[in-house]
Structure prediction request, 354 residues.
Amino acid sequence: MKETDYYPSFISLDIEHSDDVPTVQLAVEYARCLREAGRGEVVAYSLPGMDGENIQGTERQLKERLQDLWPAQPHFFALVMSDQMELIASRGTGGRNVWAIDARYRSEDQRPDVAWMEAMTSIAMQAVRIQGFHFAMLRREPTWADFVPEPPLARANHVVTTTEAQAAERYDDPGAFFSMWDRVEKIGDARVCIRGLDCLNVHDWLAKTFESTMELARIAKPKLTYYNAPHFHKPFTAWWEYGDLISEEKAGYPALTLSGYDPHTKTLEFAGYITNTPLERGGRDPRHVLIREIHEVRWITGTKKDRAGNPVDCVRIVFPEEWMARRERRPLLDAGARVFFMDRKTGNDIEIND
Prediction:
């Protein structure tokens, strides 16, 4: 495979509204959104009782059919536009009393393109003003890149709507969260965060977002970042493998060094070290704990053993400086480790719990 051949399994526009929005209104609103996003006119549709089959018809005919149904009956409709794009709306699925709107681009059918991404972004921004709006996100399945953490709100999203209050609930520094996006559009109280609409293959996406995603994982509040079980693929060594990130195109050198194992307390200890030295002057010193190291700590705390098979009840990570421990603590704490720094005056280790 060439680098450009690695794509996510799908990219999906997901929008949610409260379930009391009239079906006719929702169908008309989204037909308008699709039309204004350049997807053409309604040429086919599907309703309850059609077993998911689409029939040819116009927006006017769809509206008439919906008006003939009892108010509580229509729990589903699908719109097919003249460019063959399909948008599906359903409510009451998955045990949730909401309207769920879905438009998906499957890579097995054809590859996503920037025009489609921009159209979905336009629809997400218009959806904010539709009655009963909850949220919208343009998300990518983390295919090939499941080793990357998914911090709150951002996840693996190209677009997500949020509010300043929601960001403050999830991040120690909400301003830093908003700064990680290409642009943030304000629509009333909503903030529409947008990034990487032209970064569709996995290499481009990681080049664009990996460092900012790791920073978000470091400043997120406890236990809000999601970590998949990693499956590493060789084409992505630049974000995973240990080594010289300049000459070898690797992720960098480890920040954690095994210090020892205490069989009496079943404690495994690592020494942590990072630097603030700019990369161009830095040599081998690590600037952050690497994602591979974080997953290694997760594996140890999850299996309760080290790679040698010794039972482990506690993983301690000790940094020589407080600023190092504080900057790197969140992913390590989320991974189940205990994080300390050395007090230079007393020589004691001081734990960071927050």
Remarks:
- Helices lie at 23-36, 59-68, 114-127, 164-170, 174-179, 202-219, 291-303, 322-334.
- Residues 162 and 191 are 5 Å apart (CA to CA).
- The chain is about 25% helix and 25% strand.
